[in-house]
Design goal:
This protein is α/β, with parallel strands linked by helices and about 375 residues long. It folds into 3 domains: about 60 residues, no CATH class; about 60 residues, no CATH class; about 180 residues, 3-Layer(aba) Sandwich (Rossmann fold). It contains 10 helices and 12 strands. The strands form 4 sheets. A 6-stranded mixed beta sheet has the order 7-6-5-8-11-12, with helices on both faces. α1 packs across α2, α6 packs parallel to α10 and α8 packs parallel to α9.
Amino acid sequence: MLNLQKKESQTMRYKFTKYIENQDLSATNFDQLMDLFRKLLIATSGDVNEALNWLTQIDKKYGVLGEGLSMGDFIEDLKKQGMIKENNDVLGLTSKGNKKIREDSLRDIFSNMDKKQFGSHETPFSGKGIERDNSTRKFNFGDSPSNIDFTQTINNAISRAGLDKFSLSEDDFEVYETEHQTTCSTVLMIDISHSMILYGEDRITPAKTVAMALAELIRRKFPKDSVNVIAFGDEAFELKIEEIPYLSVGPFHTNTKAGLQLAQKILKSKKNDNKQIVMITDGKPSAIKEGMKIYKNPFGLDRKIVNRTLDEAVMCRKSKITITTFMIARDKVLVDFVNKLTQINKGRAYFSQLNKLGEFLLVDYIKNRKKRLR
């Protein structure tokens, strides 16, 4: 059973669309309201009642429900469409509603991206495979006949013997190049330390949104790939994809080592060609577990904590597991640590603003682009 901590009573700021006086909101429909409700639901850690309360407050100020529609009507619509259900006077999200959140999260990120960026995983060498390339080469024994380029093959025969004495020889045949398609196992690590909601900036909601979008992308486009999700604070634990909306930040330090250890354990059971860890964090490692106790030091880079964490990066490299780190803060201490971790693991690291996190992560997942820290 997933043990989730209740979000602390800190003042958090959320930005909504700019209010325009006397704007016509009569065209507001269920899909638009559902989109707003979905974002509020993620921000409230899956608390349907709290999300509806926030939506009520927004409606009082901006009239988002439009003319002739009440909050009760919207709730009934949610129930009719199977998005939420009521149990002992408590509203909760259904499996259909959970899937809708993942789909909409992917849609939002995808709509802001260049569609040409999406493609399959590719290895940098050619050979027998399932994806045809535009380039051709000479036919070799064992090549699939379905990959023969008949146009170029006939041209070769005509160039060699002419039309009057047309004949085909083995040297005339050309085949399309094919690219090996790979499968990938991914463990997504989400930082749930206290800093993810500090200073009035909500960092956990974008992280959860990206996690759901990535899971939905893999399920749709790369069904042979796998994705597992880990949350790490003082300790690390795995959660189901359906539990991502309910994840919340606690009064935790950052035990990056525990997250990397658990990720490796999960990946060892996978048989995919490629294995990777994708880590979203806003802070340096500040805790490790020693026996039954948690050793913590939030000040600077503690040598013991850092070294133990970097040991895990070395273990990942030896197991051919790439670590890609998405930093959602620019603290020098964090950058210094991630720089060391990336160099040791031979992985990748990005700094991403919160509103660009999804685009960076999905593109990196698909194209495996490399970018050095600056």
